[in-house]
Amino acid sequence: MTETYYQVGKLVNTHGIRGDVRVISSTDFPDQRYQVGSRLTLFDKGKAVTEVEVDKHYVHKNFHILHFKGYPSINDVEPFKGMVLMVASEDREDDLEEGAFYYEDIIGLEVRTTEGERLGRVREITALGPNDVWHVQRFAKGADILLPYIEDVVKEVNLDEGYVLIDPMEGLID
């Protein structure tokens, strides 16, 4: 069985000479993901390279600085530059609030209106401060629908059946 992984950050550079690395985080749970003892997998070009264990974490100038157990020198971590940090699905134990979802769970869902019209599939999600915007690739030709993730529009997210039910505001789809 193939393990499923979720991206939590990108290793962009080394930091100092003692094996620390700079990470641009893409997780909503950095304290949990990067806590001492966390196990992460480094991926390069979509392929798993190695599993690492975090033994130090702190934030410095908007970067998460990590150190991995068994990698004491800059020479040990230099090859990791540009790689993506992923967490295995079995290690993804986050307590999400009701109505909160992982981006990976939403991307690919079919979008339907309360009138029964099938619009397209969620292709991408952009975080814009107060609410996310879901990019819906239409089944029919045309530009993506930019769908704000707000109560007035998104009425139901059904992960089991693979759809999102929306009540579009006037002008949202046109």
Please provide a brief summary of the model.
The protein has 174 residues and is mostly beta strands.
Q: How would you portray this structure in words?
A:
Residues 7-90 form the RimM N-terminal domain. Binds ribosomal protein uS19. The protein is mainly beta and 174 residues long. It folds into two domains: 5-90, RimM (Elongation Factor Tu (Ef-tu), domain 3, Beta Barrel), CATH 2.40.30.60; 103-166, SH3 type barrels, CATH 2.30.30. Helix content is 7%, strand content 48%. It has helices at 30-33, 74-77, 103-106, and strands at 5-15, 20-25, 39-44, 47-60, 63-68, 84-88, 110-113, 118-128, 131-138, 145-148, 154-158, 163-166. A six-stranded antiparallel β-barrel has the order 1-2-5-4-3-6. A six-stranded mixed beta sheet has the order 10-9-8-7-12-11, with no helix packed on it. A hairpin with a 6-residue loop joins strand 9 and strand 10.
